[in-house]
């Protein structure tokens, strides 16, 4: 009794696996290089840190995470750069604020300089856990989506 199944073409399967691995590797490299490759032009004079962070978020795909009880976003900052990396911008903008940063893909975590907390500790400090599903406009759930409370 035969069911009409053809033997598996091992060569074709192997090619598909290799193509998949190459594709996923290129996405990983692209995500890690975003911070190094992205160049921004900013001209901000005596503006609040909160507005400066919002301007960076608007001009890039970065977003900031911080504890608003530890980071004073009312501090005034000035920066004037042309085609600078996010590292150059943050180093210059935060040098007198007492704030340090850590970049993980497109998330930038701000902490007080004298605080030795890592980004994992900051994220786990909040005891509230919110779960749910994010849907697109066609009511299809989006896998791998993270939701961050702005200013947290």
- CATH topology label of the domain at 38-125: Phage tail protein beta-alpha-beta fold
Class based on secondary structure composition and strand pairing: alpha+beta
Record the strand order, biggest sheet.
2-5-4
CATH architectural designation of the domain at 38-125:
3-Layer(bab) Sandwich
CATH class of the domain at 38-125: Alpha Beta
Low-confidence stretches: none
Shape summary? extended
Q: Report the total helices.
A: 4
Question: Radius of gyration, Cα only, in angstroms?
Answer: 22 Å
Cα distance spanning the termini: 64 Å
Residues in helices, as a percent range: 25-40%
Largest sheet: 3 strands, mixed
Number of strands: 5
Order of helices and strands: HEHEEHEEH
In terms of DSSP E residues, the strand content is 15-25%
Mean pLDDT: 77
SSE blueprint:
Layout: H1 10-37, E1 40-48, H2 49-59, E2 63-65, E3 76-84, H3 86-94, E4 99-104, E5 107-112, H4 119-125
Parallel strand pairs: 2-5
Antiparallel strand pairs: 1-3, 4-5
What does this entry look like structurally?
With 152 residues, the protein is of the alpha+beta class. The protein has a domain at 38-125: Phage tail protein beta-alpha-beta fold (3-Layer(bab) Sandwich). Helix content is 36%, strand content 22%. The protein has 4 helices and 5 strands. It has helices spanning 10-37, 49-59, 86-94, 119-125; strands spanning 40-48, 63-65, 76-84, 99-104, 107-112. The strands form 2 sheets. It has a 3-stranded mixed β-sheet with strand order 2-5-4, covered by helices on one side. The protein is extended. 12% of the residues are buried.
């Amino acid at each position: 009794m035969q069911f009409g199944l053809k033997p598996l073409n091992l060569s074709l399967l192997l090619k598909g696996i290799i193509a998949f691995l190459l594709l996923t590797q290129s996405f990983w490299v692209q995500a890690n290089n975003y911070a190094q490759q992205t160049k921004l032009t900013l001209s901000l004079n005596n503006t609040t840190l909160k507005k400066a962070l919002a301007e960076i978020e608007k001009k890039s795909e970065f977003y900031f995470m911080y504890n608003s009880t530890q980071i004073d976003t009312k501090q005034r900052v000035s920066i004037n750069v042309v085609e600078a990396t996010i590292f150059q911008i943050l180093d210059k903008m935060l040098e007198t604020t007492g704030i340090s940063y850590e970049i993980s893909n497109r998330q930038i975590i701000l902490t007080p300089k004298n605080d030795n907390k890592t980004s994992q500790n900051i994220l786990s400090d909040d005891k509230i856990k919110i779960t749910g599903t994010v849907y697109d406009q066609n009511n299809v759930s989006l896998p791998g989506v993270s939701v961050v409370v702005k200013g947290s």
